[in-house]
């Protein structure tokens, strides 16, 4: 069952068949699933982790994990939503590991930490995500880009759909404010949108 | 999908979709490396299964032992009350990757204050404290929150502001002396413990203002928690670990070109090593670190007389050949007090985008300089 997934270019039946084949032990069909979803997974991991190297590692780890766990996949949720669920938890783990490495307090060490965290370039995506926390980035991708329903996002993240809806409303206001601060629209427009 | 309210919001949505859609995949496909890894995993499958079984047996045994201890014999009402007052905490230190803390927990060098504070259904407990004169480490356990994250995202490290959107996630703890003065440290770290969803470890390293307080003193620990107004505050008695501490002022070093460094002090406690180094001159550059490549600042690895190696946890500055006039670093201790410690300076290599060069195993490539090594005799 493949729905709510405009990012996936492949025929849902092809995906479904590939899943069945992999489950039956025909490993080579897993390549079909990688090809179908690797771009989405990379984009998602990159937006959360904000590091190309870490996102590349994450994509590979996630697909290996998905292969190992594919027997647990239940067709009542879309395969892409299940992939996002695995990816979500993997990225949270990566962020936790990163936090443990962070050292702070003295100003001097702060400079090191900041230097380590700053992404090397200043692309549109980096500017967009600079002021968003990981939860907000997840919500933005799943809701705005992938266009999942709040119930589906709740299944992926394990949060309640009511809380997600409220969070999304706050996020919308934050983005409008962010755009206003960048001089992207006049004060009149901001007042109107609120 | 709900309609965004006006043209501005629609523009934002379009911009987001466009920007995210433009993120390039760095390679054509990850198909090959992923399929290779899967193949390798399947080849090793038999071995993996055996390991899993061993783990399961070990886990079952551990559970059995705990149940056995608690249920063996009769428990008097007085003892039952005592048990209630002392929740059974797992050691935070034992679960960390920090060799010094693990060793301290195993040797019983830590103190267990068993202090708990509950507000609004969330309980925070201090399970362990370790102080050796140079480092103060505190283990926390959280209960009453169904979230596998422990720490909230810190949005500003200067002001300690943190994301308040999820109730029960923790901000940065603040540790103060009875005078109200914060405990001053050269560096600190706060974070969850890998695989332990309710444990937090706070480490204050290279302590600066506790030496005059003696071997026992009080600290106040305050931990902010998201969406709970009442502070989680603890009064903790800190006891310095017993055991031999070695404090040396070697004042010895080495030179290469214009670069020169000296080990000003080396402190070895039962759980930590701390080394202060001063240096001057330009960071040495190897032949491989020219052109688009450049060295990082100089790092100092310690090697004992048995060949054991320990490194400090220091991060790196994303800038070429940064010279640090004074470095004050903590290291994990060696398995036993060594007869000699050799300081082995090295640099890592940055590419033109200031990324560290790594080998095939993802380890930083290090350039060592034999002529910069110096060996300190431990009395």
Low-confidence stretches of chain B at least 5 residues in length (pLDDT < 50)?
44-88
- N-end to C-end Cα span of chain B: 73 Å
Oligomeric assembly: heterodimer
Class inferred from helices and paired strands of chain A:
mainly alpha
Low-confidence stretches of chain A: 1-8, 102-121, 184-194
- Give the class of chain B from helix and strand content and strand pairing: alpha+beta
Task: Tell me the helix content of chain A.
Answer: over 70%
Cα distance, first to last residue of chain A?
38 Å
Please state the overall shape of chain A, judged from the principal axes of the Cα atoms: globular
| Most extensive chain-chain interface | A-B, 65 and 65 residues
Topology of chain A as a string of helices (H) and strands (E): HHHHHHHHHH
Largest sheet of chain B: 6 strands, antiparallel
Task: Provide the gyration radius of chain B in Å.
Answer: 25 Å
Strand content of chain B: 35-45%
The chain-level mean pLDDT of chain B equals 78
User: Mean of the pLDDT scores of chain A?
Assistant: 75
Number of helices of chain A: 10
Largest sheet of chain A: none
